[in-house]
Amino acid sequence: MASNETTAQTVNRFEGVTHYQNLTPAPDLDQKTLNKMAWRSCFLQASFNYERMQSAGWLYSILPGLEKIHADNKEDLALSMTHNMEFFNIHPFLVTFAMGIILSMEQKKVDIPTIRAVRVSLMGPLGGIGDAIFWMTLVPILAGITSNMAIAGNIFGPILFLIVFNIIQFALRFGLMNWSYKMGMNALDTLMEHMKAFTRAASILGVFVVGCLTVTMGGTQINLTIPNGTTQAYVAHTATVPTEDVSKFEVISKDTDGTTLSGMVDASGNPLATTDADGNAVTAGATDLGNGMSEVTYMETVTSPVNVDIAKILDSICPKLVPLALVMLLYYLFSKKNFTPIKGIVLVLIIGIVGAGFGIWPSIWG
Amino acid sequence: MEYSALQVILVFIVTFIAAIDQFSFLESLYQPIVTGMVIGLILGDVQTGLIVGGTYQLMTIGNMPIGGAQPPNAVVGGIMAAILAITLKLDPNAAVATAIPFSLLGQYGVTLIFTIMSPLMSKCDQYAAEANPKGIEHINYLSMCLLGLIFGVVVTLFFIGGQAVGSAVVAAIPKWLSNGLSAAGGMMRFVGFAILLKFMMNRDMWGFYFMGFGLAIIVSGISSLATPALLILALIGFGFAYWDYQQNTELKGSVAVAADTDGGEEDGI
After folding, report:
1. Minimum CA–CA partner of A354 in chain B
2. Can you say whether the dihedral through the CA atoms of A323, A327, A330, A336 is positive or negative?
3. Using the beta-carbon criterion (under 8 Å), do A218 and B69 form an inter-chain contact?
4. Does the predicted model carry a pTM greater than 0.80?
5. Which residues in chain B have their CB less than 8 angstroms from residue A212's CB?
6. Looking at chain B, which residue has its C-alpha nearest residue A130?
7. What is the pLDDT tens value at each position of chain B, 269 positions in all?
8. Is the Cβ pair B126, A7 closer than 8 Å?
């Protein structure tokens, strides 16, 4: 108990402290320290947890700078580390922007409440912008292109993905670190001024790309045919027969109403005509081969079932209607019915399995 | 299929690194498109690994950690999908759907770890108050190792035990179920798209969605543009977005400048 109490005293001794002991601004951080912190920012979420989220990782990232700034006063370093252990959560790829600003404030020995307010105010806008840049724009486009390369068996798909993603990531990490540290407080104003327009523009591109992805990656199609009666068609046959037998082929069989079911001429004596499998016109008739034999072309009625192909009908209205309908349905459930992603995935599994039929009817998904 | 000890160790190492990478480090090594290829290399079937990785990646588009949400875990899901497809010779779409339960398990694992880590924060408070940078560093390294270890052990166990169990399960799966899983696997990506839309959409954005949909139908109808289709479409989309940004900032910019000038005068007085 005794040791617990001392620990509590150590941790709580800064309660209500608003200023550093040494208020002399520290010298500028050198480029090496800035780079080291930008590299460390990759591990912002190393100890992510539900209580403080990224706070320990945030402190880990800015420690090289804090150690330099408060090198002359260990008590100030402890104070700085303590208030930087407070709850923190920001977009992991844009964190260096916040780091630069906070470090410039620490360096100027700004009072703790102001540093805290700026740090907290940075959490909101950067999260939205980071999501807009990375998860809604860069990754869908990049992963969309490279996934298709990978599915085609191209090993450069994953490699290209890694290269492009990381070039952008590290350019942002190191660029923002330097830029925001130098701009200090002003950087926040610059960002806030155009933040709304930027987020909106990124959302437009994102929404547009999702529309494109619905088409280019929506492979789902309904594989359903509905029987719709039957149709009768003549199929041509060719035979070589003695010339005197040709007349027997004129009408081989008749339907009750006089329609020729099989033969060369219809009820009024005109030759029958049809098209063969290749689409060429064929006319019934006889050709005398000159040796007492004739080649006859006669017709036979074949009854075949007619199917309505749902996919063809849907495509004639607009291609990719099934993917569009599924995306719209899921969007409705997520945004209006508060569906969680897991629920959506379960629903899709059910649609897929029910659509494939419990061994009763064939799969309707093509 | 029998596996050498080396392959088992490599699968463990890949999972260990990918588990850490999903939150820290490059945050791109863990993506299924990458792990699919790597698992393919380890198990000697790069082609299948690439196809499954690409298929799983398409599903995860949009299913990303937006706004701190925890989507089904892409590390466990992506690695297991590649393992299942290669070892059990599953169709890529079916493998992706079969890996979903594993990815849900991964998601629970992440939730568990994020909860376990919380009490460690009071230890960090103590190190901070003592001005002990080494302590803070050690806690971060420890957390990463713990995360990698848990994921690595779980996936390796699935990998070793799964091949006997998995073969029996796959043999027992009726045709309608494998068809259904395959169809569902192909539809999973729509979940991701819909979640993206939920975060980005508001009433004046719908036009841009349908514009993208329509233009994509036109571009994808031209077979010579099949490969660069998305890039071309992204360029068109960028045009719209940039134009909109200019419209907003130029109008707003002039207002802001005027306001600044006023403020300056007031300050001067």
Report:
1. B180
2. negative
3. no
4. no
5. 212-213, 215-216, 229-230, 233-234, 237
6. B66
7. 567 889 999 999 999 999 999 999 898 999 999 999 999 999 999 999 999 999 898 888 756 555 445 567 889 899 999 998 998 888 888 888 888 778 877 777 787 788 778 778 888 989 999 999 999 999 999 999 999 998 998 888 888 876 666 556 666 767 777 777 777 777 777 877 787 687 677 778 899 999 999 999 998 888 887 667 777 888 898 899 889 888 888 765 554 444 444 333 333 33
8. yes
